[in-house]
Amino acid sequence: xxxxxxxxxxxxxxxxxxxxxxxxxxxxxxxxxxxxxxxxxxxxxxxxxxxxxxxxxxxxxxxxxxxxxxxxxxxxxxxxxxxxxxxxxxxxxxxxxxxxxxxxxxxxxxxxxxxxxxxxxxxxxxxxxxxxxxxxxxxxxxxxxxxxxxxxxxxxxxxxxxxxxxxxxxxxxxxxxxxxxxxxxxxxxxxxxxxxxxxxxxxxxxxxxxxxxxxxxxxxxxxxxxxxx
Length: 229
Prior knowledge:
The protein starts with a helix and ends with a helix. It is globular and about 55 Å long. It has ten helices and no strands. By secondary structure, it is mostly helical.
């Protein structure tokens, strides 16, 4: 039996690689299609044809068009985390909230298409759906799991800045770290919404940086007050 397991292992690994390759290709073409046509006008049939697969094949990987869009946003969150992490590591100073805000803006300046999809208004709907499914103990799709995990990773970036400010506070001793990460992930939504509104109002990126500085100052003062008390 062990011999068969060893024989099957390379096949399983190859199938897994092939599956991931097909999935990545579909997500890549779906991102382009959603950006070019918008969510409502984008069709599964079109995405399948551009990707070089059948509609039936797409449904082997994604439950619906909405699930495919969730996968696209999950991949964008991953790209955002990578971009922001690199931005922060390339700075000589220790990261603080203002630098973190600049990292957000750097991603949005560098990838306007991805930013447009994030700001499509569907992120909140997806997050709410995930919360409701978990509350009712319904299983998440693969795309929803990836979306949730990648969004939490952005929360961890904020945690790397805020948590050191809270260390040594007696009031933090009994706080579940997962709860902190969950709260910080929500703060990502606040920052992105401020940037989105700034762009809608026609503000320059410099104006948006000023707005974020005010936000971060309020947060930092609140954290200091929380720790001291």
